[in-house]
Amino acid sequence: MTNMADDQMGPAIEAVAAACRVARSVQQDAGVRQITKDDRSPVTVADFAVQAIVAIALRDAMRDVLIVGEEHAGMLRQPEHEAVRRAVVEAVRMILPDATEDVVVDAIDACDHDGTAERFWTLDPIDGTKGFLRGQQYAIALARIEGGRVVLGVMGCPNLSADHGRPFDDPDAVGVIYAAFDGGGCRQLSADKPDGEAQPVSTLSGDTVFEPGATVRVCGSVESAHSKHTDTERVSAHLGLAVEYARLDSQCKYAVVARGQADAYLRMPTRKDYVEKIWDHAAGSIIAAEAGAVVTDVSGAPLDFGRGRRLEANRGVVCAASSAHPMIIRAIDELGIAAAV
Ligand code: AMP
Ligand code: MG
Question: Is 103 exposed, middle or buried, given 0-12, 13-18 or 19+ CB atoms closer than 10 A?
Fold first, then answer.
């Protein structure tokens, strides 16, 4: 690893590992406090606390840190959300015992970069909040973007087991962290020992031949509003393949492809007007790509992280082992799915 990557990777892994501990502890609380955002999606104490912890950790470790974070503290500042605000500060104090309410709320709001700088970070503090609330999979996803490309990604998956045999809906007691940087490969760490031994991660299935009648292992969203599952079925039927479909929340799906447990993660657009957010894909995409997968949108174009807070140039996502990616893109094209979005 180069020194440059080390200078950023070390603090990024440390911040994500601390955030995993806090998220796990909040998830184990009976009745996680939450607020419903304007778009009707939920935000919890863990989303706010993790955003504060990671922002403070990065700013303490390096200079000139710009962060595009998913959350804002606007609602948290309102008097009716005082109980949530207090719970957030209490959660942050697990890691930063002296943190005051002002420091915490300001740290959340400081993650308001618009994604137009040459170099910045992007953070989804709790990706898959619905999975988090169901006690299932979620991810803490942190990535660095330079010149419109992801150059470093760290993703904490507190409920994902290192054991591929374990069902996704059975939360693990330890969890895993994936880390990758441009040209440096992908590795897996134990979430409770992030400075312990790293395991190299690879899709390994790069030379699998998918002949008609074979089975393709695909993963996708739990939420039907986030991916059009009928289009996934159309793609596998078009290829003459049987599909073994696993549904799990969050960018953990990229890790599942990275570690060779699935051949593909398909995110098939459900609406013409939905544009993917950079924090939903930055960390996961470099983790999968550095493990040997190919990551594009449904038309086969690379994801362009140089367009601000959203992936304005892309629609949907196809992340697949190198052996599976070309045939999936071809099937999507032949079915006219990409042209329809
Ligand atoms: P997943 O856990 O893979 O289903 O993805 C969760 C993410 O989906 C959330 O963080 C949202 O930002 C994002 N999301 C919300 N609405 C949509 C939509 N209509 N299509 C795709 N993604 C969405
Ligand atoms: Mg998200």
Answer: middle
